[in-house]
Specification:
The chain has 94 residues and is α+β, with helices and mostly antiparallel strands. The chain has four helices and four strands, in the order E-H-H-E-E-H-H-E.
Length: 94
Amino acid sequence: MFIASLNYIQPLDKIEQYLEAHRAFLDKYYQRGVFLMSGRKEPRTGGIILIHAADLDEVNRIIAEDPFNREKVAEYTITEFLPSKTAVGLEKYL
């Protein structure tokens, strides 16, 4: 399991230019069951994506597709973690 933490490195008006394409990117990986949760940070300085992937290489390949990454409007910090406990119904992610 991985947490992708995005930090905007361009002004919000530049971010907004790529927001629709970023949402389409998110939808693609939600449909594949790879993305589990995402949302913007508050204050609005970036976002978080919870990713169920096999390894860091897969995560890096996916993030490379993100329009925010391609257009260099955000930087990413990827943190791997090994779930040891979940809420009821999320056991398959252990």
